[in-house]
Fold this protein.
Amino acid sequence: MTDTALDMSVETGAASYGAASVKDYVALLKPRVMSLVVFSGLAGLIVAPGHLHPVLAAVAILCIAIGAGAAGAINMWYDRDIDAIMARTQKRPLPQGRMDPDEALAFGVFLSVASVVLMGLAVNWVAAALLGLANAFYVFVYTMWLKRRTPQNIVIGGAAGAFPPMIGWAAVTGDVSLASIILFALIFFWTPPHFWALAIFRKVDYSAAGVPMLPVVAGEAETKRQMLWYTLALFPIGVAPYFVGVGGPVYLAGSIILGGLFVLSAIRVLRSEDHKPAKQMFTYSILYLFLMFALLIGERLAA
């Protein structure tokens, strides 16, 4: 689509905004992404030393969920032009003209501020500051600065999605420790191979939208090599929670198996000539992160 055609499509949508439904507002929060964010935040909260009243724990998780959804809403507001081009995102409320962009922005900003204030007042201000930092990083650093400018967008911008377990930890302890930094690093190093696997089989979309994802800029071969390096770097980070007392022997065994399968997935992608292994790796990457945190949670609750 040419720039002129894109401008015309945006203007046409702007002239005929529909009445947004509850479903549209929910979609604006990126619920599928939010679910993994909330789960990792819950893991940080559960494995942290100390105790938090169940009501306050629920409030902390709610704030993490609202904050993540708010950042997603602002991201959709800012990226509505390229979302209209990409097949994966064309049916979102803003590209479809079902919602006024100003309403989407106001919705996201209100929820973001509310989540941080509520976290600070109800839980503690360290967790609130981390939540605010995560939201600001995702909106200003990743969405507005990096995403359209550098193929390292996911590498640096991935830090935003790595904050939730650290926030959950801080909600209980009121501080940041080596263990919570390791949980942060687990998601940080997981993010590039996860998103690059998606970018490989969605390369045409990203290219059409002018987003310099690594497969578009450096080619698939280089992307696959970097995916392997990141999974190799992730392996020791994945087992590290055991050595700082956050995970036990069950987690250690599980993390070795899951990490090894992640490396094998990257090797399969590197050797493949088609996109099927990349699609499979993308699916597995989600399962990997879920199971890693599930092991931490299950082992702590069983103790």
